[in-house]
From TrEMBL:
UniProt name for this protein: DNA mismatch repair protein
UniProt domain DNA mismatch repair proteins mutS family: residue ranges: 257-439
Cellular compartments per GO CC: cytosol
One Pfam family linked to the record: MutS_V
Biological-process GO terms, alphabetical: mismatch repair
Cited InterPro entries: DNA_mismatch_repair_MutS_C, DNA_mismatch_repair_MutS_core, DNA_mismatch_repair_MutS_sf, MutS, P-loop_NTPase
Organism: Sphingobacterium olei
PANTHER family the UniProt entry points to: DNA MISMATCH REPAIR PROTEIN (PTHR11361:SF99), DNA MISMATCH REPAIR PROTEIN MUTS FAMILY MEMBER (PTHR11361)
Superkingdom as given in the UniProt entry: Bacteria
UniProt keyword Iron-sulfur, yes or no: no
Amino acid sequence: MSFTVDKQTLEDLNLLGKFTPGSIFGMFNKVQTSGGERLLLQLFKNPLTDPDAINKRSGLLSYFQEKALDFPFSRAEFQTVEHYFSTGSSTNYPAAFIVVFSKKIQASLLRDERYPALQKGLVATIGLLNSLNDFLKQFNDPNPTPFDEELQVLQRILETPALRNLLKEKDADEFSIAKLAAYDHLLKHTLQADIEILMECIYKLDVYLAVGKVGKAQGFAYAEALPKGKQVIEIAALWHPALIKGVANPVGFNGENNMIFLTGANMAGKSTFMKSLGIALYLAHMGFPLAARGMRFSVCDGIYSSINVSDSLNMGYSHFYAEVLRVKKAAEEVARGKSFLVLFDELFKGTNVKDAYDATLAVTDAFAQYRQCFFVISTHIIEVGEALQKTTDNVQFAYLPTVMDGKVPRYTYLLEQGITTDRQGMLIIENEGILNLLKN
């Protein structure tokens, strides 16, 4: 079973994108190898849905976060090794010798760069294997660790007699044609399968170390995954990972209180809170560190959001119709009995106030009947909340307050229980002098 997140939700939460400013992938993308980056992207695109697998990964990453070790190879050094293994080798030693001898002649007569590149690649590879061997000595923990299984695989490969002999060549900076051909054939043919496994393990190491380092630097924590159906999300303190000094809020859902109806002024932090929750649950399903303290959650089927929905000129959709289609899609998933986190920010703001009130109330009341999901629905129409209080018993009412310092609004970003009574819109307009500008 896969974790469902559509393109709109990925964009709303800014989860992917190597070059997208502030993306969550970019935050964790501190790897040193191209293979590590590919693996990291693969992990981001495939959150887990098995609680045991999630907890196993979070335990592994937490272990590396505590270890706080540096990746033992430079990016340039590793690129040299990757390039070395990208060049082929013959299936038997005599043929390999002839190929290497041919490259040597061409290097002498034509200044062909392939022979010196082969020498350089082999030297770099031997250096990498020795560095890896030394690095793994730091994992001599007396008690079992989450890394033991992969550590044993790496140690088994490095203890292969042929590789042990190769490691002894760590002081050489050039090899004879015979040795160069022999070692090249050994690494690229005889031990090809083991070398491929070893490289994949190094890519994983790259990811573990990078993710752990980010988690430690940011003060992130790990979540505990519970089986699907437990109907719980508990977070002692949650903030947005892109905020250096983000204000943290507790969050709690269960089967009896599975919806938050959120009110507050513009700029009070409603959208940021919803994004923070969506990002945290997504990273929790990946087993990654997240911007929270002490999170427990039951596994979900996916996340569905409607935060930054825009109109579509190509499809001929108005903003309101685009909103309606998002709500319809969410309704289809929820009605199928799936367990989703659904985030709706300012429902139906693309239509008139009367329709927005009626539609928000009807849709929110209908979604509230589905106890297997978690919902956060925000709106400026506080009258909807007042009506919901009379018809539902599973909705938490929360708001983000505005505090007035004289005529200047200040935002605490701290959730409070209830429905906001803040109505500072006109005051902010007056503070900006818009009406005076128009009168004059």
